[in-house]
Amino acid sequence: MRIIASLALLLISTGIARAEIVRSPTTWRVDPAPFSTDKDANTSISGAACATGTSTCLVVNDETRFAQFFTLGTGTISPGAVIGLLPKKVDGAKMKELDAEGAAYAPPRTPGAPGHFYVTGSHGASRENGVQPSRFFLLRFPVDAATGLPTFAFGPGDPPREIQPTTSLRTALARLPEIGAYAEKPLDENGLTVEGFAILDGEALFGLRAPCIGGRAFVVRAPLDPLFSREPVTARASSLAMGDNTGIRDLAAVKGGVLILTGRSNDARRGKTYSCERPVSDTANEAMAGMPDAKVWLWSGKDADAPLLLGTLPGVSKEMKAEGLLVLAEDASGYRILVWFDGLPDGAPLEFTATRPPAGK
Predict the structure, then answer these.
(1) What does UniProt give as the signal peptide span (predicted)?
(2) Can you tell me the distance from the alpha carbon of 359 to that of 345, in angstroms, rounded to the nearest whole number?
């Protein structure tokens, strides 16, 4: 660690600073463990967000219809109450799972107003069961800005009326140039799938795992308020050159932009793997060799700016599926981040420190 720090100082002093990521010595534990006793939810953590200025956070999973609060301590994550997000049925249609893939928090715009947590579904087709209406929701609910907790009664069952759902993004996705043709196709056919979510300057940003087209990943963006009104929703897509077979796995808003967690775009199931939109291999070994490493990028959110690669997550193998990104702290030098992993108990969170070069580098 001292060698890395000394090298960083040397690079800065010589004017050739570069971004890098190092593993933090801090070991995080879930105490009291576990997160939800629902086995599928516990090993399917897909995103988290914290209420600004509090230790209250929300974690989502891609297997159920609920989310769960937790609090951050010093190296500890303490699970709290479960909050139901979707009822068992909507307009007569069975809601099997929300397939929640991202969470974000928006602070109040005026003093005394509530803050809001937001949760997005994948807006993509299920591998086994095709198009399911439950996956096409974006939801929000108000919380006390001082505590980060709801002021209304809630529980693990059907959601209270304070939880506001919308499906307005679904139609907007299908109308997008270039990527709209992939809407509601299965992931293993490069089908459009949301896996990251952030709020930046009044816009909702949806990071797409797929489609990946010509080495480009996509962020769909739409004005936040119209998504929850009866106003027409106008969405657009930003194209980011991030390399072959690279998809966005999560987004997190920071000062001046967003952090982007990336990993593989393809789906190696059903005997095939994909290099963006083209099938390239039928063997598991070749498929694993061609998968990109988990990486973190910084992007201003402006189409004119290319994303800046902060680095590859050290000590994270290709088999580990980095799925969620939570910013613990940030300053002028960089970021402390917590990364969660799909398929592991409690998301097995790991902490990293990501530095960034000075402005103009």
Answers:
(1) 1-19
(2) 39
261 touches 247 (CB < 8 A): no
Which pLDDT band, with edges at 50, 70 and 90, does 3 fall under?
very low
> 3-class DSSP state for residue 347?
helix
| CA pseudo-torsion sign 246, 118, 228, 184 | positive
Integer Cα distance of 208 and 270 in angstroms: 21
For the chain, give the number of residues.
Answer: 361
Question: Which tokens go with 251?
Answer: 């987004």
- Residue 251: which of 235, 236, 240 has the closest Cα? 240
Q: By the 8 A CB rule, do 23 and 352 touch? A: yes
Are the CB atoms for 275 and 215 separated by under 8 Å?
no
- At position 253, the amino acid (one-letter code) is A
Q: Identity (one letter) of the amino acid at 152?
A: F
Q: Which two tokens stand for residue 284?
A: 């598991």
Give the span between the Cα atoms of 343 and 112, in whole angstroms. 40
What CATH class does 2-355 carry?
A: mainly beta
The yes-or-no verdict on residue 153 having pLDDT over 80 is: yes
- Burial (CB count within 10 angstroms: exposed 0-12, middle 13-18, buried 19+), residue 45: buried
Alpha helices in the chain (DSSP H): 2-13, 39-42, 168-174, 284-289
pLDDT for residue 187: 85
Cα Rg of the chain, angstroms: 20
- List, in order, residues 6 or more apart from 183 with CB less than 8 Å away: 123, 173, 174, 176, 191, 192
306: helix, coil or strand?
Answer: coil
For residue range 79-121, list pLDDT tens digits in order: 999 999 999 999 988 998 999 999 999 999 999 999 999 999 9
CA angle 195, 145, 121 (to 5 degrees): 20
- Cα separation, 309 vs 307, whole angstroms: 6
